[in-house]
């Protein structure tokens, strides 16, 4: 049942809307997501760590959002997408990233502009659904966000970490105990504590993983032309084959590439804007640039490097012949490309990213619960305990069921958030034009 529902959520109609919205925003803003990159990178290099109005800094907000997306999506998610959809899924992940940059920018900018109405999408959706039964839709999004945090945001991360650490002979039960206890302790200081923790951990492990992946690709650089050819053939069905088989291969590449790409950067889901809306000292457009950087680092850079490691390891044939999937495949490919001692290092990276992702999604669910039940300490305590229990269960549950739940919950958030983004898209374009005019005059 979950598989049928997930397939319906991630069918051609939903994916077409995502690509269409991203393309519309990109064209209307004259490729702002590309043009603003120099300014966004300058801000990041300057280290915008100042707080504004008692709020967390832009760096802390992006670190929290990036920590919630890095790891499972761009390591394990890339491996599962390639096994299920073939090498062509990787190209569709990058197309999802290009569209996702402007979608993420729009979410973040709107969330900052209208955060007085509520956290993230729960604020700007009030502008769209203001009458009749539609008033309940922002609350419905909050319920879906809370369900995603408990059913997906913690379980997929601990499940991936458990799979990765199994290569180090760590029993899943031990992972379950660790994740349960750590999650309960780490979330004791609330959203602020989670964001401070992410600001220290996420940049270090992100740079470390990108360096390791870059070294693996360089080691197997002779297989790069063959890998790029396989991606192109798989993405567009260029390999000679029976029409039906080729069509099915392309459909699988599109579905798994786009769905895993969106899961990797969470564009359109409305999760990351909850963290970005916490930041102070930045206007909507400036903070939106940090959302673009988030997608750039997470999907365009990290997912690409991971895919190239998988496609070039062992001369390019290892990933097909190994019979592995998910975290086990990623770990084995790094070991084949570099050294057997690199496998445990990759497993450790996946586990660390799992920890930061669990913390980030706790913040999303906490803000959603506060929107539904403000000032209810009993509800907050129950959520914290339930979230820790879910993180523990994810470490021992089946991987296939976890990923089906992931597709289901991300689909529900998308279906509620996308109509609001579509209606408010002209407002986002006006924000960009006004900001550029003011910047030009200044």
From TrEMBL:
Residue ranges crossing the lipid bilayer per the database entry: 6-27, 59-84, 90-114, 134-152, 164-185, 197-218, 345-364, 376-396, 402-425
Keywords: Cell membrane, Membrane, Symport, Transmembrane, Transmembrane helix, Transport
Compartment list: Cell membrane
Membrane topology annotation: Multi-pass membrane protein
Pfam families attached to this UniProt entry: Na_Ala_symp
Entry keyword annotation includes 4Fe-4S: no
UniProt family annotation: Belongs to the alanine or glycine:cation symporter (AGCS) (TC 2.A.25) family.
NCBIfam families xrefs: agcS
Listed name of the protein: Sodium:alanine symporter family protein
